[in-house]
Amino acid sequence: AQRVTQPEKLLSVFKGAPVELKCNYSYSGSPELFWYVQYSRQRLQLLLRHISRESIKGFTADLNKGETSFHLKKPFAQEEDSAMYYCALIMVELIWGLGTSLAVNP
Amino acid sequence: DAGVIQSPRHEVTEMGQEVTLRCKPISGHNSLFWYRQTMMRGLELLIYFNNNVPIDDSGMPEDRFSAKMPNASFSTLKIQPSEPRDSAVYFCASSLGDDKTQYFGPGTRLLVL
Fold first, then answer.
1. Chain B: residue nearest A44 by CA?
2. A92 contacts in chain B (CB < 8 Å)
3. Cα distances (angstroms) measured from residue A62 to each of A24, A59, A85, A87, A94
4. A98: which chain B residues are within 8 Å (Cβ-Cβ)?
């Protein structure tokens, strides 16, 4: 079965510290992966997708097929990064992880 | 473009009442998705349409839930009768063609008392 796992429900870091939000997937084909972000009581927004290889708001994510991972990283967390982050795998529809709530403390 | 539009933004109703949630996808998008978000279960896909045709409704919890897409610019999700356990945020999203990026609406926050 295709599945996306985000092992941490909550991640708390201090401002300026590095952040890594973990995402592992299980998929037998060639995966296409996304990170979405949801700020408090707002809509989900696309943060980045692996095929574009962009850096959005200082975040990057590299697809590691050997480890079947797509971890989201940022070298220096900011308070405004506090949000819910969802990793998703595209098939016909998106397969979603349960999300990780990131809290960046001052 | 105003993005995906959902109405109402908030809905409070009593158990047993009918609830209708509305969604207007981004103009030109041909796929539309309905999601439910709760603290316990996260984001769940309820149903999605492609070119106004329901493709996969396996996520619809039970017969009390129904969704329609009468044209390319409008979809409804109906709950009848509603129950307290239906309380959640319901999101609509749309996408275009082979670009699988989904664009989300602001959600409808439903509370069933």
1. B104
2. 55-56
3. 12, 10, 16, 12, 19
4. 42-43
**E-state strands within chain B:** 5-7, 10-13, 19-24, 31-38, 42-50, 53-56, 65-71, 74-79, 88-96, 99-104, 108-112
Longest dimension (CA), chain B: 41
Q: Do the chains contact at B56 and A98, CB–CB below 8 Å?
A: no
A53 Cβ partners below 8 Å, 6+ apart?
A: none
Select the residue from A37, A38, A44 to test the B interface by mutation, using most B Cβ atoms within 10 A: A44
Structure tokens at B62: 């039970």
Say if the Cβ atoms of B42 and A98 lie within 8 Å: yes
**Rounded CA gap, B73 and B29, in Å?**
9
Q: Nearest 5°: phi and psi at B42?
A: 70, -145
Reported as a single tens digit per residue, the pLDDT across B34-43 is 999 988 888 8
Predicted confidence (pLDDT) at residue A66 exceeds the cutoff of 80: yes
What tokens were used for B100?
């699988």
Closest CA to B99 of B26, B7, B43: B26
Closest CA to B2 of B18, B24, B19, B32: B24
pLDDT digits (tens, 9 = 90+) for A2-28: 689 999 999 999 999 999 999 999 887
Closest CA to A34 of A76, A73, A86, A80: A86
